[in-house]
Structures are given as structure tokens and as C-alpha cells.
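Hey L., structure's done. Input below.
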Amino acid sequence: MVTLTVNGKSYQVDVEPDTPLLYVLRDNLGLHGPKFGCGLAQCGACTVLIESKAVRSCSFAVSKVGPGKVVTLEGLGTPQKPSPVQQAFIDEQAAQCGYCINGMVMQTTAFLASRQGSPSEREIRQALQNNLCRCGTHQRIIAAVKRAAALMGKGA
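Output:
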């Protein structure tokens, strides 16, 4: 049995310690924000936050979470009250197919939480460079990150 705190709730799951966190989140807890993309921690679709740091859950063993608090896309906000980052991505219509957006939102959340002030376009591109998007909504994603920073009081 492994004990996890996910989105503020404690869970006990009966899984092998080396089971990828992504599988536990999706298969055992029914959370579908994190997506299976590549399975190699290279695309970012599976990104979650552990203690406010972006982590690729497809290659992160559930036993490594320990006492850390996991936050998934579902834990950032609600449909009625999305987080500032979620709201910015909605406002900028940053998703096309939407498969990468979980990773983009989670990586953006960690990025903006770790900094002061408004990020430059170069800093945004650098922060998101390892999150892959095949649809090509990159300009809208950058606009969403800038909007989220403004919503969070980090400048325009």
C-alpha cells in the first residue's frame, strides 16, 4: 500500500512501488488531467506538481512521492473558479486539440510560482521548451502565460 496526498485528499492505493505515478493518478484515482504522451518524460503531457515543482509523472515512481503533496490539473481550480493560469489559457484559446495543455498549464503554474515579475517571451519559451505541442498554438500559449502572469500580479 502506498499513501498519497493528491489535490488535498489522502489516498491509499494498492500498487507496486515502482508503478509510474501517472498510472496511479489515472487508473486508481480517476484523474484525467495528466495525459500519457510518450512514456519517456520527454513531451510533458503527464506533468503534475509535487511540492509546487513540475514533475513528469509517466516516469516518476509512485514510491518517490513520499510525503509530498501532488497537484494535478483538477486540483488547480474548478470549472466555476479556474486558477489564474487555467483562466488565461481559456481566455487566449490556447488549446487546439488540447492534449498538451495539461503539461503547458502545469509547467506554467510552476514557472510563474517560482519567479517575481513579468516574464519575457524568451523566458516563457525557455520554461516551456520541453513541453511539446504538435498543433502549433505556441503563440496563443505564450499569450496565455503573459496573461496569467498579469492575473497573478506579476506584471503585464
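The first helix runs from residue 21 to 28. The beta strands are 2-6, 9-13, 47-50, 53-56, 69-71.

-- N.
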